[in-house]
UniProtKB/TrEMBL annotation:
Cleaved signal peptide residues: 1-23
Cellular compartments annotated: Cell envelope
Protein name: Monosaccharide ABC transporter substrate-binding protein, CUT2 family
GO molecular function, one term: carbohydrate binding
Record organism: Thermomonospora echinospora
Pfam families assigned: Peripla_BP_4 (PF13407)
Family statement: Belongs to the bacterial solute-binding protein 2 family.
InterPro entries named in the record: Peripla_BP_I, SBP_2_dom
Keyword line: Signal
Signal listed as a keyword: yes
Domain of life: Bacteria
Ranges where the Periplasmic binding protein domain occurs: 41-298
GO cellular component term of the entry, any: cell envelope
Chief subcellular location: other
């Protein structure tokens, strides 16, 4: 009797294993057979205040939307992102989303996702792969952000008779925001031939690198009027370098940045920054809603552009008390 009971339990457990295997689990979840959306998300890293806010937004939105989120931090390395995406494919998640560290080099892994019939959503940053390899791209218009920063300088220096010397701190080499913001900015300032970029170098979107690069550039360029940094964090690092060089940020050297995270907004409200173009990291809710539509087989727009604004010092003072990030 006892023997028969053991055999029966073994039989049930074998059957259960078979059901899981049919669902296609390789140790991970089987999203497609359940109502719960399983979303694999590969994040760039934690290089900036923006990125931290973006990660938080995605994690919180997943919780609220009841999404089973498989989150992976690539520490700013493309090979880590490719490995994470391959692991999501192996786990047979319902949808893969990622914020690509650089623009190039994604064709092979995106083709693997397509062959496995797993839709891919790009968030925040673009790739140069064929558009048929992803369902949609959700994020900011980085060229437009660069243009807005440049336009502020065109207006600010409309009466300038002398050259205005600008240092540009670029984001991560080969990343969409670095390429596009440079393009938009340089396009806009071309309207005033007095506006001259005297040095342009990458600070990798981090505060530490922004400071280090700015220290070197200030030594090589004695006559600097403006810093344009591709994000707040590099601007904040460079601001320290400017102060340590005995100059007053916001006055001797005007500072224009992109993002509008809390520390950047504080510097703007304090008069140390002059203008910030907003780049919103709050993509979580939109990502969850889009991923659910994709899983349900609904059509989504190929490009979903984030709505953003700009801040001068007065607007920053007003916005700071209720700023979410
Ligand atoms: O891709 C968005 C950019 O990446 C943000 O401007 C920057 O702060 C981040 O690291």
């Amino acid at each position: 009797m006892f023997k028969r009971l053991i055999l029966a339990i073994a039989g049930v457990s074998l059957a259960l294993t078979a059901v899981t295997a049919c669902g296609g689990s390789d140790g991970g979840s089987t999203g497609s057979n359940s109502d719960t959306l399983v979303l694999g998300f590969s994040q760039v890293g934690a290089e900036s205040g923006w990125r931290t806010a973006n990660t938080l937004s995605i994690k919180e939105a997943a919780k609220t939307a009841g999404v089973d989120l498989k989150f992976s931090d690539a520490q700013q390395k493309q090979e880590n992102q490719i490995a994470a995406i391959r692991s999501f494919i192996k786990q047979k998640v319902d949808v893969i989303a990622f914020s690509p560290v650089v623009v190039t080099g994604w064709d092979a892994v995106l083709k693997e996702a397509k062959a496995a019939d797993i839709p891919v959503i790009l968030t925040d940053r673009a790739v140069d792969s064929d558009a048929s390899l992803y369902v949609t791209f959700l994020g900011s218009d980085f060229v437009e952000e660069g243009r807005k920063a440049g336009q502020w300088l065109v207006d600010e220096y409309k009466d300038a008779k002398e050259p205005v010397n600008i240092i540009q701190l670029e984001g991560t080499v080969g990343s969409a925001p670095a390429i596009d913001r440079k393009k938009g900015f340089e396009e806009a300032i071309a309207a005033n031939p007095n506006l001259k970029v005297v040095a342009s170098q990458s600070g990798d979107f981090t505060r530490a690198k922004g400071k280090e690069v700015m220290q070197a550039l200030l030594k090589a360029n004695k006559d600097v009027d403006v810093l344009f940094a591709h994000n707040d964090d590099m601007g904040l690092g460079a601001m320290q370098a400017i102060e340590e060089a005995g100059r007053t940020p916001g006055k001797d050297v005007k500072i224009v940045t992109i993002d509008a995270v809390r520390d950047g907004m504080q510097a703007l409200a304090d008069g140390k920054f002059n203008f910030i173009v907003e780049c919103s990291p709050l993509l979580g809710d939109q990502l969850m809603a889009t991923a659910k539509k994709v899983k349900a087989g609904e059509t989504v727009d190929k490009r979903i552009v984030t709505v953003e604004t700009v801040f001068d010092q007065a607007k920053a003072k007003e916005a700071l008390p209720t700023r979410k990030y």
